[in-house]
Amino acid sequence: MSKRIVAYPAELIPDKESPQIYTVIFPDVPGAISQGKGIAEAISNGSEALGLMLYDAKELPGASSLAAIHPDESGTIVNWIATDLEEIRQTVREPAVKKNTTIPGDLAEWPNRRISTSVPFLQMH
Q1: Tens digits of per-residue pLDDT, 9-42?
Q2: Do the beta carbons of residue 42 and residue 77 sit within 8 Å?
Q3: Can you point out the beta strands (E) in the chain?
Q4: What CA–CA distances, in Å, run from 51 to 10, 25, 62, 72, 73?
Q5: Long-range pairs of 53-62 with CB within 8 A, sequence gap ≥ 24
Q6: Which of 4, 34, 95, 113 has its CA 20 to 30 A from that of 83?
């Protein structure tokens, strides 16, 4: 299995009411947001969120340096979080959607009919 590992700086922001809960944001990947109880779970969940945002991206955003990240909240931890985009891509399943519809009976029977060459739009030119 091939790997496609990327790493981005993340901010682990402790919750003001529950300091053991961390919100994870990625300044370079705005849609990647996660949360976890404790630093280990926050990093693990952040890795998954990062992968889900980027696994099918045509172009990856550039990654800032850790020194370029200036958190707004005190107590925020700034750290690299990595993810394997190939591993995430293989685990993602597109949802199947089943739709029922009602169509006129003569249209429903049309595929069972023998195609006539007298129908103008079906004639070969």
Answers
A1: 999 999 999 989 999 999 999 999 999 999 999 9
A2: no
A3: 5-14, 21-25, 33-37, 77-84
A4: 13, 13, 15, 25, 25
A5: 53/29, 54/6, 54/29, 54/83, 54/85, 55/85, 55/86, 55/88, 55/89, 55/92, 56/89, 60/6, 61/8, 61/28, 61/29, 62/28
A6: 95
What's the alpha-carbon Rg for the chain, to the nearest Å? 25
Q: What is the pLDDT of residues 42-72, one digit of tens each?
A: 999 999 999 999 999 999 999 999 999 999 8
| Residue spans of alpha helices (H) in 1-125 | 39-54, 85-91, 105-109
